[in-house]
Amino acid sequence: MEVYVDDMLVKSKKAPDHVKDLEETFFVLRKYKLKLNPGKCAFGVQGGRFLDFMVTKRGIEANPSKIKAILYMKAPSSINEQAFEELKDYLAKLPLLVKHCPGDTLYMYLSTTLQAVSSVLIREEDGRQMPIYYVTRKLRPYFLTHPMGVKTNIPLKQTLGKPDTSERLIKWAIELSEYDISYLPCTTIKGQTLADFVSEVTGAPPEESLGNEKWLLHVDGSSTIQGSGAGIVITSPEREDSKFMIKFGFKASNNEAEYEALVAGMKMTYEMGARHLLAYSDSQGVKQIEGVYEVKEKYMVQYLQQIVELRTSFESFQIIQIPEEENAKADCLSRLASALEDFRTRRITIQYLPSPRATLTVQAVSSTTDWRTPIIE
Questions:
Q1: 76 — alpha (psi -120 to 50), left (phi > 0) or beta?
Q2: Where is the RNase H type-1 domain (predicted)?
Q3: Residue 246 lies in domain
Q4: DSSP H helical segments within 63-113, as ranges?
Q5: Which of 9-13, 252-256, 302-306 has the lowest mean pLDDT?
Q6: 173: which strand partners?
Q7: What is the number of structural domains in the chain?
C-alpha cells in the first residue's frame, strides 16, 4: 500500500490476491472508523495516475499530460535554444521505473569524482535496462539476495585482484568477497548518464588541512628462510596509527626488502592524503638515499630512482635512520609477514593474557628456634 496525505493505492503482485488485499485494507479502515469517498474510488484497475506519475503493471512511468506540457513549452529565443530543446526531449523520455524481483541479476552503474560517489541500480528485462524505483540507503540487502553486475569505467576487477598495489584495498577486497559480484565495462545508457550527472554536479567540500600537516612513516623489511616481507606503520597528524604487513611473492635480499617497504609506505601515505612526510628506517639504505653511500647494483639503482620520483610528489620529504629498538613496531610486522606461509590469511586474532596460567602458591611457614637460628640471624 502506498499512502500520501489523503491518497491511497492498494497494489497486489498477483491478480487473484487483490480481493484479499482489499479485504484486509477495509478491515483496517473499519477498525479505526475511517471513511472513503466512493466518488474517488476505483477498483480492479491495471493502471492509473498517482502523485502525478502513471502506475501500470509494467512499473512507474511519466505522466503523458506532464510530458505534453513540456513538449509544447515555448522555447526562449536565444543561443541556448538547442540546449533547451535537448532538455525537453530528455525530460519527456524519462526511464521506466520498476521493482526488483528475487533472483534477478541487478546491475549497478557507478560514477565517482573527488567530491561524490553516485550509483544507479538497474534490472534487465527483455533486453531493456530499467532503474529500480525504490532502494534503501544501504545496498547490503540487495547484494546479499541478488547477483550483482557492477558497471564502471574504473578497472575494479584488476585493481581488487591485485591488492598488493595498494594495501588499503585489501580491506575492501575482503569485504566484497562475500557477495556475488561481477565487474563489467560501461555501456552508454541512461543509467550511466544519471550516475555521472549526480557525481559531477555535486559541489566540492571545503579543503581539508590534513595534507598540510606532517605524517610519520616507519618501515622495515625482513628476509628469512621462510620468505620475505615488509612492515609499515603510518601515523596521521591526529596520532592515529595504521599498520600494514606485505608478504612478498618473491625471494628478496634484506636490502631489497627494506627498499620495497619504503616504496610501498610512501605510496600508501600519499594515497592517504599526506603531502608532508617524515620517514624512519633502521636500514643502511638511508645513507644511500641521502647520497652518503654509493649504490653499485643496477637493480638497487632502480629502487633509488623510484624513491626519488616518489619524493617529488610530496611538498616536503625527509628520511631519518634510527636504531632498531626505535623501529620495533615495523620490525615486528615485517618479521611476521616474512614468516607467514599463507599470505591469504584474512584475520589474525591477538589475545591478551594478564597473568601466567601456572602459578606458585606462596605460603607462610612458621619456624622454631633450633641450631640454625644463630646462623640465619
A1: beta
A2: 211-339
A3: 215-339
A4: 64-71, 81-92
A5: 9-13
A6: none
A7: 4
